[in-house]
Write a sequence for this structure.
């Protein structure tokens, strides 16, 4: 139950496309916060590449095919959904709007969209569950203490989350140069973690690397994925995979799905764009294994391209935060509606009546001669 | 008979090339209108690609071949024309000049150019016919009500149009971000359509997509092309094809010709440049099937490249509107003259005496090493 | 004998490289004249490509090879030259300096450089011959009247020119957009042509193309090259060839050499860079046929790359005019000296003791990953 | 013994990455000196290419691999080092900081980093030896007089240097256009050379090239490498090799290692980026021959990419001078620490526990579609 009423801002004039929320956010957000949100790790090469890779993929229209009666339904975890867009786990949403995850979860429910609550959310997973619709998943970061990780999973199960997304690509994270220059200070306390004891300081032998031997000691490995899969009955998705070998390895270990992602350029700077990597991942896992994609989606055309490249569905992170910043719950719901319309327009003009048709569409390079 | 005299503006100083009309139009047009004209759908990726693709194609000169006695004649619909340039169907020309289609049609007649009147013209097709020369075609958009479509075709036949261009690539259209930001409001009433009843509101089942099931319900399909071909005795050209499979399909259905076009980037944003797509289309329809191209032509060198890529002729849309805005009928006629001269100069320097020689010319990539 | 003393300007401070003359010329020249000099035909795509193509070619250094005792000698028309740089035919040099061709010819003589006098020179070929050194060639444009062409050739032979360069790539020429916008008006009377009668106006049949049937009527063809080769005993070089087929054709017709050139981007805009075209031309004419290159050379490294690509020697046009504008005869001589030093430095660092070694050097693409 | 105390500046606020030292140096350094430091030979094409080539290489993350317990140790000259980063020989360090090589050598010692003293150092090699740690190598330029070269080698051996790096890529050097325009005047007297007689002026035969026959007379050749290898018992590394043939030749001549380098773009302008060249060099010398790389490293990710490309270790030049300029010895030490952290983060996120794993990592192109 959300005790404070959701603030339903007006949708501002001048929002005609999902990308307009990014443009407006740049105008209305605190510059340091915007720098933090927009910036990728380090110099941000991968964050920029995510956008460029989508821009440089083209679709050959096929306007005379019958699409009337088409739809955008997809099935994930055995559940049919009306559209293939999810709200990616985005932490600390109180930075973007006073309603924080209350707003984005409400927007998800209003638009038949799965909401994925972050371990790093401003609200505890229980508080999110109280306001979110039934289609909610929980995103997990492995904690240094295995008991703590287990406890968080139990809490998510108890709170009625129906899917578990484990993010594996950021055991360490280099800050964004852009955010540092803007002077942004990220929040330190996390609602989901505040009742657990602090992990003990790590002892290093002389000469041992603080990073490789210290910070990475508790980093998740394939073995931890096995452990987690046995710990929970929830469908388990692994987020942050770009290498075909790793994807194949995870298939053999029985996970429910994989999210091809470079964490929006916030993990390894220099990683390729997700949409550049997905074809090889799709080829390595076979046609039917569940794959999602995030990183760089700013329009419904990008959703189309992600699916044509091999994804079954997509997650949107930054757009969610931009829309939330600009217009609260209403903004997020509107952004999802615009994404859907843009994707459907792309389907309509390229002769795709269903997402299966989209998957069968060949993308072509744009700007190759430049 | 046009009752108000055609305003024959002076050709402004500083117009030395067809592209100069684009440059001058940017200076003299209302900024919002210019934004509308120049912008492509959505972010305008394809509109930009159209220009870049032409710029990145090169021609190897062959100066010592004899071209004297050459010409630029071509045959379309069994009719010989002195040059391969047509005026593309451009709607709402009253936006650009008080004389509207009167001016462009007069310019076409004065330059032995085929004028293609748009369904969306500011003047009714009958009014255009009264002022246009005999070489006039009509461009058709399928209407939601088949009877209305049939009636428009009958009117075009009665009014003496000698060709029918059916545009198939914009059953729906996403507006240009640029035009939206500039605050442009497009005209709503169309002279050709004002006497027909408004189409009834469309009923959707719960959960049906407004786009895929609503707007696209009346979108033309291959079957509609068959119907149209039977309805009319006019040569039927299909405009808005980029995919080789669709082109081949249309050949089997007996259309008279195909116009390879992405609607100047105003249809599916993300579509490849027409000139990048034409070689594959040409290969799929064989050497002799009539093909035209539009989208992105700003110079006679571009006309040359379109033909070298596989087109028999080209249509110019934006350049027409630019010249019309800058200098009315005289501007359009002058623009066509400049295009012809530029194309002939390109032929002269590359050893092409005829358009057949142009078709045999290999294009090379420019800027590939960059 | 030049009756007015050559003005030997000081070499201005800040000239450390041949390219510095281009930079300084932009500062000191009349802007309209500079626009004319720098601009290529039409939008200038090829002029820009000439520079980009050189910039995007790389050389792998080989510093430990012995180059001591090396030299830059080459043999052209059976005559040994100390270096492979010539002054390209540049017309109307009075535009650039009061001394006009007197200055550039003197600079050529002072630096053991062949001077090629233009048909369009400010001074008559006889006046140039009076001030130039013995190493002078004459550049010929075919004239509409064959008798006039013959007469010019006779005059050049009589005046002691030892080579004939016939330029074939500009029977017509589209002006530079940039020069037009800058308002440049080119000179109309040419010293070499002033005593000939004006060619009669050309009659065109109705509907005939002014360009293809009019202007191109007198354009040189392969047959005219045959005629010219029989008319003169001078070594005959054809300038303005980029297509391998045309090069091979000229070899069979017995010309002395070919100059691979796009006229510095002043002929067919859209032509590839000379340095991009030369490898295919070299392959088509065999290893030993004399080839030169011009278009885009701004440094000794460019000279190196042209030779590595397949040229025996190069011509410099714009750099000549820049240096002439900035510092008269002394500037041109200094520019040649800098080009030589830069070329020799490139040879030294890449292990080339002779131009034959340069010809054997493989170029690599730079910026390919960008 | 350094008689004046090392100035241990504070690390300035705003340094979060090694690249920040470059950014800050641009703000705090004398503009002419910065132009000199940043500029490459001539127009600086290669200097720019060095940065672009690293930026356009990507790494596919592999986050679920176990890296805990990993390290960055490597073995060079039979000696184990904790990390693969060395301080490149940078001359005239008094330009950058009053402490000159005292500061950088101290920083090297404090961070277990090999310091390579330059022939062109501000301090004599004996003075550097007095303040540097035991892990110090000496960089040699061949001198015109073989006796002088021998004497310098003897002095380096006597002063306890444990490795010899002979730089071969700059027997001549074209100055940077950027530095010339900024008016930078390089120092002329060198501490290591001031007690030797000036080399006699070189006699040239008439017509001999000043560069090829004069300056290059004393340039080192493969034969000189043989001579040097016999002269000294120190491990001998050759710096400035990019061509696979030259690398193979040096392997057969028994040198200890090769440094793939284009001298930071300060030798042959137009040379490819070191990181673009290293794969072919590695292939030509086999998997186990010692290779290092310099030129263009601005981050730990770049170090990772250099090693993935085939290097065993890297040298940093400009970053050293930037950090020295900004914050003296402390800055240099801090810069090395940041480079190590950035490299280890890259290893952690790409599943590399050791440098051998890095060497086995495939790099992918970024921005290829642009």
């Amino acid at each position: 139950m959300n005790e404070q009423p959701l603030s339903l801002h007006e949708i501002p004039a001048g929002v005609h496309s999902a990308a307009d929320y990014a443009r407006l956010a740049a105008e209305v957000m605190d510059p340091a916060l915007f720098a933090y949100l927009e910036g990728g790790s380090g110099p941000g090469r991968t964050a920029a590449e995510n956008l460029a890779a989508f821009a440089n993929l083209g679709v050959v229209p096929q306007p005379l095919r019958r699409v009337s009666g088409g739809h955008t339904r997809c099935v994930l975890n055995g559940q049919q959904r009306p559209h293939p867009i999810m709200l990616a786990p985005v932490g600390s949403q109180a930075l973007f709007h006073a309603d924080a995850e209350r707003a984005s979860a409400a927007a998800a429910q209003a638009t038949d969209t799965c909401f994925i609550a972050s371990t790093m959310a401003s609200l505890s997973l229980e508080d999110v569950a109280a306001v979110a619709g039934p289609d909610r998943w929980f995103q997990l970061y492995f904690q240094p203490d295995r008991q703590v990780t287990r406890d968080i999973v139990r809490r998510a199960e108890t709170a009625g989350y129906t899917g578990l997304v484990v993010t594996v690509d950021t055991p360490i994270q280099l800050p964004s140069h852009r955010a540092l220059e803007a002077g942004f200070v990220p929040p330190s306390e996390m609602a989901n973690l505040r009742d657990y004891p602090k992990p003990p300081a790590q002892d290093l032998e002389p000469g041992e690397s603080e990073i490789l031997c210290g910070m990475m000691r508790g980093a998740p490995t394939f073995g931890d994925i096995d452990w987690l899969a046995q710990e929970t009955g929830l469908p388990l998705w692994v987020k942050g995979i770009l290498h075909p070998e790793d994807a194949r390895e995870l298939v053999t270990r029985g996970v429910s799905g994989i999210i091809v992602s470079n964490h929006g350029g916030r993990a390894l700077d220099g990683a390729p764009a997700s949409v550049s990597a997905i074809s090889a991942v799709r080829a390595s896992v076979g046609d039917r294994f569940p794959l999602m994609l995030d990183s760089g989606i700013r329009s419904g055309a990008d959703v189309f391209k992600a699916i044509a490249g091999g994804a079954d569905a997509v997650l949107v992170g930054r757009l969610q935060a931009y829309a939330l910043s600009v217009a609260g719950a209403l903004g997020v719901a509107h952004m999802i509606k615009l994404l859907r319309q843009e994707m459907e327009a792309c389907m309509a003009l390229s002769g795709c009546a269903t997402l299966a048709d989209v998957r069968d569409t060949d993308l072509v390079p744009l700007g190759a001669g430049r």
Remarks:
- The mean pLDDT of chain A is 94.
